[in-house]
Amino acid sequence: MKIELDQAVGAHADEAFTFLESLVRAKSTVGAEQPALEVFDQYLSALGLTTERLPFSNDVSVDPRSGVTPPAEVQTEGRYQVLARTPGTGPLRLMLNGHIDVVPAESPELWTTPPFEPSRRNGRLYGRGAGDMKCGFAIGWLALRAIKDVQPDLFATQRLGFLAVIEEECTGNGALVAADQYGALAPEVILLEPTDLGIMVGGVGVLWVDIAVVAASGHALQADSSVNSIDLGARLMDGLRDWAHGLWKSTPEPSMPSDENPYNINVGKVVAGDWASTAPSTALFSVRIGFPREWSATTAEAKVRAAIEGIVAADSAFPSQPTVILTGFRAEGYLLDADSALVKDLSAAHLDAHGTAPEPFTLGSTTDARTYLNHFDVSAVCFGAIAYDMHGIDESVDLQSIVDAAKTLARFLIARFADERVLE
Ligand SMILES: [Zn+2]
Asked: What number of other Cβ atoms are within 10 A of residue 42's Cβ?
């Protein structure tokens, strides 16, 4: 049986890679996710799953669990998500989850091959989203395709779901809306994020803010006497980094004992200035801020605002307090018990497939797993391929790791769905 299963995974691997190439080619930055979802829909339908499009509203969400809706200029009409389910009428026994959205690819001229033209070389597939995380859809598809060959009746009595969500990279509202409005839930969820074939059980909190720094503008000949808004903003960012490092000392993350920077500050975007000989009066800094798992998003917002106020108040070069607004993630930290059945059984499946049991780990980042764990009391874990340069230049995924992950996932699914016990 195991030999047949691995042979079936191997036999369909190239189709899975072709699926991944089609997904990468369908550029799915925020607001433009629909063509990639169509590809997902086609491939899962062809496997015999029933697919359903779940409309996704661009309206500003008032749900306190949600992130801040992206600005209107990146939104499009008719957005939706796709839930694929094995045939039947009962509830889902287990759900696979992937996010179809990818981050933008700035500086495409720095890429070896264009970011949205998939390229296979050196045993990898390159392209924006190849690693984070369109490879996860290839893993899920490949495991299901192999199961169809060797155990076609596996889902006859208990149903499996495979959900493709949007906005994982900016708000997390996709997974939230699918669960809350459409009941896309199961007692266990596996998110096929790239984890280097490890089992990721947790993440820290993440807040996105825009900080508008104001300075006294003027001619460049006075540049030595007044500090311009870009320089002021840079000082504020240094202050925030010191604050975040202090947070690690006061509130370390117990599951990340060796990481001295679990709460990273990332300056992702700066908009300022209009003239080389003018000191800019305003600068807008878009910043991602990590925060401790024990804080709520509301607490994090209050603490960040207080930290900024404190840094600015202590520096006489700032003429006024900056304006701070939330722009995306209001994501609280999360952690699944490493002794949960989901982690243990997935680990056992990996041991069976590859001879090693992966260690559960936590990262200083976030995933949609938090939504299931924190808001729906559902066991959720991330497991997937080996990815390189995620969000960066020449992002890629190791193709063999897609095959390896599919072997683990297929074993896990066979064990789960062979167990007929009815869950609470
Ligand atoms: Zn991801």
From this structure: 13
Tokens for 48, please give them: 């015999």
Cα within 13 Å of Cα(207), Cβ side: 24
146-180 CB burial, b ≥16 within 10 A, e <16: bbeebbeebbeebbbbbbbbbbbbbbbbbbbbbbb
Give dist(CA 108, CA 277) in Å, integer: 29
Å from CA of 48 to ligand 1 middle: 26
Beta strands in 273-368 (DSSP E): 278-279, 282-291, 323-331, 334-335, 360-363
Q: How far is the CA of 193 from the centre of ligand 1 (A)?
A: 5
Q: How far is the centre of ligand 1, averaged over its atoms, from the C-alpha of 422 (Å)? A: 32
Q: How far is the CA of 375 from the centre of ligand 1 (A)?
A: 19
Tell me what the mean pLDDT of segment 195-216 comes to.
95
Contact in structure between 231 and 172 (CB atoms under 8 Å): no
C-alpha dist (Å) from residue 180 to 55, 190, 313: 13, 18, 42
Residues flanking ion ligand 1, Cβ below 5 Å: 132-133, 193
Q: What is the pLDDT of residues 104-163, one digit of tens each?
A: 998 999 999 999 999 999 999 999 999 999 999 999 999 999 999 999 999 999 999 999
Residue 217's pLDDT is what? 63
DSSP string, 294-305: TS-HHHHHHHHH
End-to-end CA distance of the chain: 30
Q: What is the pLDDT of residues 224-247, one digit of tens each?
A: 666 899 999 999 999 999 999 999
377 Rama sector, left if φ>0, alpha if ψ -120 to 50, beta otherwise: left
Please give the model's pTM, rounded to 2 decimal places.
0.95
- The pair of three-digit structure tokens given for residue 313, joined into one six-digit string: 């108040």
